[in-house]
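Would you mind giving me a polypeptide sequence along with per-residue structure tokens?
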Amino acid sequence: MSKNNKKLTTSWGAPVGDNQNSMTAGSRGPTLIQDVHLLEKLAHFNRERVPERVVHAKGAGAHGYFEVTNDLTKYTKANFLSEVGKRTPLFIRFSTVAGENGSADTVRDPRGFAVKFYTEEGNYDIVGNNTPVFFIRDAIKFPDFIHTQKRHPQTHLKNPNAVWDFWSLSPESLHQVTILMSDRGIPATLRHMHGYGSHTFKWVNADGDGVWVKYHFRTEQGVKNITEEVGTRIAGENPDYHTEDLFNAIDKGDFPKWKLYVQIMPLEDANTYKFDPFDVTKVWSQKDYPLIEVGNMVLNRNPENYFAEVEQATFSPGTLVPGIDVSPDKMLQGRLFAYADAHRYRVGANHNSLPINRPKNEVNTYQRDGQMRVDNNGGGSVYYEPNSLGGPKESPEDKQAAYPVSGVAENVAYDHNDHYTQAGDLYRLLSEEERTRLVQNIVGAMKPVESDEIKLRQIGHFYKADKEYGTRIAEALGLSVPQEVK
């Protein structure tokens, strides 16, 4: 493997001291806006593809509603969750992650699961995936990770060397890699998969008391997956298979349904739980924090125009309503900036005024001008604040709940670095047939990797998660588990 002494630099030539950890206030953050290297990476990354989405380019969408079935007002003051039976209109977009707009639906890839609730207090977005975890846990690594999933700049081909080199050097990815390479890596349809908010969020009730939450959308159709061979065959026969299936199901009245649950953790548990609850590469045990029912999601209407609705739909985990706040999750903190910035670049500064994104309630801002201004631009009304002319004013009762932060401003990793226990637990939960398919999928994906050093480094991670897991993959690749790992 080639070695060099070149220093990584910013675009203005300054050396980068830490490219693995963003700068936070203490070990849990929040992330500091003074980390100009992080901001440059995220902002530049959002502008690397024109005009389709950098990630989640291929997608399908539908309209529907959410109905509350359980009273959880003791945990959150969010208006759309305020009473059993209340319905809120919504729009959802499903997507693959790495492929281009014309790529096949049935590839092995996580699926985006983004839901926009049109509440009476403004829009609320849950922007998740069909997996409860992710490959990385700090947004500063996101541009590099997605580069490995894209095409080689010289050959314009997918590059398994880059994929496995990055994963083998980022052991926090092991849990998600195990899920991706398992049967769940290729859902049979978009209707037959779960969805997750993935990140930890904060609910706050009317008294200002908070809890940490995780979202789980459980499919009412049952989980169904397809094998690598079937996925490959369908990709050649009908690359739009998932898109077509969703449209046809709704069109004939077979409305897909999911039941939303949350896990709820008391705020103080975050300091003592066995895994850092803000690390998106980890899950909370459902034995420790059981699923609590929230309500039902039903999709019952197809878009009238794909571009106007599915393609121009914009989602951000920073699109919040009173009663729902964010957490110190470092990956989430980066997404708060990156997603909205991507929409301002891709769709325009006024993307929220487009019909698919426009809130149902009245919008009162002092924002003016910019691309895609489709209303009267505020007419001749007052355009600054504070003012004495009767313009809209802030409402202190809607401020986000305060929480303490402390620590030294520095580039720092999460305190907990056990990347193997949960991946090993998942492997041991699988049946023998599921384990065999998992190993076959991983071996098939790793065989094209040219470097044995990369293969052995990754085998070491599998072995640390479970000895059988690593040994089976090593033997299938004609290699031995590195002695230093045993």
